[in-house]
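Question: Hello, beginner here. Any chance you could explain the protein record under this note? Any guidance would be welcome.
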Amino acid sequence: MAARTKSRRRAIDLLFEAEQRKVNAGELLKERLAAPVTEAPLNEFTADLVSGVVDNWNQINDLLTTYSQGWTLERMPAVDRAILRVGAFEVLYSEVPEGVAISEAVALATELSTDDSPKFVNGLLARLAEVKPTLA
């Protein structure tokens, strides 16, 4: 697994954990940076992804809700929410090419979630990439 893919997975793990524990993802990130719980501390790319999601939390959630066509965030599997938040951040706010961000999110959904999740993640992130130029 490539280094950036591992970093994305760790960001998804952290966002998922924060949601399951009902704690702020930004605070959990600060805790993990100060006192790592794994042999390898969180790297800069993982921290940037989590920070980016947290900094744009409301807009990301609003856009995911708006373009998910009949699926509320609460109805989605928790792991899909984490994958979509990281993917949406990369598609909308980062320098990562949109196709790479979507492909990585789909691969992680294939590995971590349900059989239907990769198609859903692909469609929703592709839609965000499509409407990105209209967002201010």
Q: What stands out?
A: The CA atoms of residues 46 and 85 lie 13 Å apart. The helical segments are 3-21, 25-34, 44-55, 57-67, 78-93, 98-112, 117-131. Residues 3-134 form a domain with the N-utilizing Substance Protein B Homolog; Chain A fold (CATH 1.10.940.10).
